[in-house]
Design a protein that fits this description.
This protein has 495 residues and is an alpha+beta fold. Among the domains are: 68 residues, BFD-like [2Fe-2S]-binding domain (Arc Repressor Mutant, subunit A), CATH 1.10.10.1100; 185 residues, FAD/NAD(P)-binding domain, CATH 3.50.50. Helices cover 29% and strands 23% of the residues. It is built from 15 helices and 21 strands. Strands 3-19-15-18-17-16-7-9-8 form a nine-stranded mixed β-sheet, with helices on both faces. Strands 4, 5, 11, 12, 13, 14, 20 and 21 form an eight-stranded mixed β-sheet that branches. The chain has a two-stranded antiparallel ribbon with strand order 1-2. A hairpin with a 2-residue loop joins strand 13 and strand 14. The chain is globular and about 65 Å long. The protein binds flavin-adenine dinucleotide. The site of flavin-adenine dinucleotide (FAD) has 42 residues, from helix 5, strand 15, strand 19 and helix 13.
């Protein structure tokens, strides 16, 4: 059979589209993510209409084949052009372009079939947390589980992040959780049959000030005491790892060769498929609109597809978790904060580690496809569920990146996007029981590091929910700690 190309940039064929549809991806956003069509140099300009019309001729309803959200910049543009802009002259962060639809704006894709009438565990949110938990519950024999996801898989932060996985943390708990997660990443393909493209090129943290250098040293000693291989380097030592680095502002660096990056999307597919194979129902385009609580106990999730009675409801809605908790009359202290990120054209592999400057929140790495993927927090970003892309971000990022690696000035930005960090007052998650509402469990507040924590946290949460021994993390990180004034600070945050 001839090979009929749909997307020349990414070498996607009609057979690839057919394989995606056969695998259950039934909307353009998901098919794009599964096949990669439209993510190359032309950003879908030459393939989108062809792919959409092929999909609508092959089983997708016309509205399912609607075009995906366009991403700036309009054409690939060199980093040095953005670096020449003065970010402060661009004003504070605005809504950006295009304003991102909420996941439920895809409600036109809502499945027609009914939900089951009841289940043991309803999980709100089909991001990495909800799906990893569903899979781990099923693995322990708890298969009467329904995941309710308002959009497509990957609609939330789990489909928008940098894929960094690191053991370099400030607290013993996070070091241990991240180490376990990396172990699970290494075995993911063996266990779930999906390649998550883990590349352990290390994380290189750079300090531009004595204050940050001292922090790196303190954290490195704790990490080493726990068996992590972090070394403190001089600027020259950092240059041995990244020869292209301009080290004039570098005071010190920390490097752990066992940290790495993964490709986030297959992680979600792997957990979703693994859970579904064991009997879990993963219901996409199904939004939870209410939570029924009777005499202090959760009774049901109310959705835009009807009522689902449940014994336990897990709030794994990431940046939307305060809104979901509010449906049960519960107030969570976390706040969403937009974080922007971009990807460049692919380059020959040259960059081993993910590099991050803790002083200004810059981070970047090279993906297995050769692209530079990176982002940077903005101290002026207000709280809110904003997910549009701004020129201010790309100007700030391009400046910071090209002053770190000047050789990248001529590299072209292909696409920028944004997601929300789910920020708690102490940068630690909210896990476990909810005071006053039995059966309502929290699994949110993972700030900018939930992806790398999910495999390990989900494993422990599933053990605990399946009747295993009491686990101290569900007491220490519970919601009650905020009312009790018992904060669990973690400050090793990028961005
Ligand atoms: C730009 C960026 C870079 C990042 N980089 C990293 C990194 O390098 N490493 C790392 O570990 N982490 C990183 N993170 C953080 C990480 O992505 C998140 O911590 C993690 O994905 C959170 O997963 P989640 O499942 O809790 O939330 P999400 O993935 O956001 O999932 C929540 C889901 O709930 C759904 N939902 C919301 N409301 C409802 C409702 N009413 N009914 C049903 N469903 C609902 C949403 O549609 C969404 O899909 C980054 C985040 C961003 C934004």
């Amino acid at each position: 059979m001839g090979k009929r190309i749909v997307c020349a940039c990414e070498d996607v064929t009609e057979a690839d589209l057919a394989a995606a549809v056969a695998r259950g991806f039934r909307d353009v956003e998901s098919v794009k993510r599964y096949t990669g069509f439209g993510t190359g140099f032309c950003q879908g300009k030459s393939c989108l209409s062809g792919a959409a019309s092929w999909l609508s001729d092959h089983g997708l309803a016309r509205e399912q084949a609607a075009p995906f959200t366009p991403r700036p910049p309009l054409t690939p543009s060199e980093l040095r052009a953005f670096a020449g802009l003065d970010p402060d002259s661009l004003g504070p962060p605005g809504p950006g372009i295009p304003p991102e639809p909420e996941p439920w704006d895809f409600a036109r894709l809502r499945p027609e079939g009914a939900l089951p009438e009841r289940c043991g565990v309803a999980i709100v949110g089909g991001g990495i947390m909800g799906l990893a938990l569903a899979y781990n519950l099923a693995k322990r024999g708890l298969t009467d589980v329904v995941v309710l996801e308002a959009g497509y898989l990957c609609a939330g932060a789990s489909g928008r992040n940098g894929g960094g996985v690191r053991m370099q943390w400030d607290t013993e708990t996070n070091i241990r959780l991240a180490r376990r997660s990396i172990e699970l990443c290494r075995g993911f393909a063996r266990e779930l049959g999906v390649n998550v493209w883990l590349r352990q090129g290390g994380y290189l943290f750079l300090a531009h000030s004595d204050r940050v250098a001292r922090r790196l040293e303190r954290s490195a000693s704790l990490q080493r005491a726990l068996g992590v291989n972090t070394q403190i380097l001089t600027p020259g030592g950092a240059r041995e790892i990244v020869p292209e680095l301009d080290d004039r502002r570098v005071v010190a660096a920390a490097f752990n060769p066992d940290d790495g990056v993964i490709f986030p999307w297959p992680f979600l597919w792997g957990y979703a498929e693994g859970a579904s194979r064991r009997g879990v129902r993963v219901e996409t385009f199904t939004r939870v609109t209410g939570i029924e609580v009777e005499r202090g106990r959760v009774r049901a999730a109310l959705t835009d597809r009807g009522r689902l009675a449940c014994d336990v409801l897990v709030n794994a809605a990431g940046a939307w978790s305060p809104a979901v908790a509010a449906l049960a009359g519960v107030r969570l202290p976390n706040e969403p904060h937009r974080h922007e990120i971009l990807v460049t054209e692919p380059l020959k592999p040259f960059l081993g580690p993910l590099v991050s400057v803790l002083d200004d929140g810059l981070y970047f790495s090279q993906s297995m496809r050769g692209e530079i993927v990176g982002g940077m927090g903005d101290p002026r970003e207000p709280a809110g569920l904003e997910q549009g892309s701004t020129l201010r971000f790309v100007a700030r990022f391009a400046r910071a990146l090209t002053s770190c690696l000047p050789v990248l000035g001529g590299v072209q930005v292909l696409r920028q996007w944004a997601g929300c960090y789910d920020v708690t007052p102490d940068n630690s998650p909210i896990l476990g029981e909810t005071p006053g509402v039995s059966g309502l469990l929290q699994m949110s507040g993972f700030v900018g590091h939930g992806f790398m924590m999910a495999p390990a946290v989900a494993e422990r949460m599933a053990d605990w929910m399946a009747g295993g021994a009491r686990d101290e993390i569900f007491d220490r990180f519970n919601l009650a700690r905020f009312a009790e004034g018992r904060l669990e600070r973690e400050d090793f945050i990028i961005g």
